[in-house]
Amino acid sequence: MTDQFAPTNPEAEEDEILDVEAEEEEDFLDEIIDDDEFELPNPDSVITVRTPGAQTKYVPVGEEPALPVSRVMSEAGLYVNGAAEFWLDGVQVRQDDLVPAGRTLTVVGSVKGG
Questions:
Q1: Do 20 and 77 meet the contact criterion of CB atoms below 8 Å apart?
Q2: What is the domain-level CATH number for residue 103?
Q3: Rounded CA gap, 97 and 93, in Å?
Q4: From residue 29, how far is each of 4, 53, 59, 71, 101 by CA, in Å?
Q5: What span, in angstroms and rounded, lies between the C-alpha atoms of 51 and 49?
Q6: What is the pLDDT of residue 64?
Q7: Residue 20 falls within a domain, yes or no?
Q8: Is residue 75 assigned to a domain?
Q9: pLDDT digits (tens, 9 = 90+) for 78-106
């Protein structure tokens, strides 16, 4: 058996792979940013929803200054399966409480959807 296929310098080869991956990621991001249709939302125009599965959803609020928790969940396509707690920037809230635009709603419990 010969070593003709074995890398001569494994560390150098790993560095080359990492460089290629970094270039591909940068090219991908450049394409998105250059896309005329891509637009970052104004943070004050959305409600951020974080789920137990480490999923993040953004719900646009439109002209309304705030939405009830239940509507935010519905708009995000998320549904509670059993008991759940809702936290608004670290304070526990109920499903009928309002969530202002620009804030973060965290859901703790069994959530389906999205």
A1: no
A2: 3.10.20.90
A3: 6
A4: 38, 25, 23, 33, 27
A5: 7
A6: 84
A7: no
A8: yes
A9: 888 888 899 998 899 999 999 999 999 99
In a domain, 73, yes or no: yes
What is the mean predicted confidence (pLDDT) over 56-64?
87
Are 108 and 82 in contact by the 8 Å Cβ rule? The answer is no
Q: Which domain holds residue 92?
A: 43-113
Q: What would the two tokens of residue 50 be?
A: 């974080």
Q: Using a cut of 0.70, tell me whether the model's pTM lies above it.
A: no
One-letter amino acid for residue 15 of the chain: D
- Split into its structural domains, the chain has a count of 1
Residue 56 included in any domain:
yes
Residue 27, judged by CB atoms within 10 A of its CB (0-12, 13-18, 19+), counts as exposed
- Least Cα distance to 107 among 91, 84, 89 occurs for 84
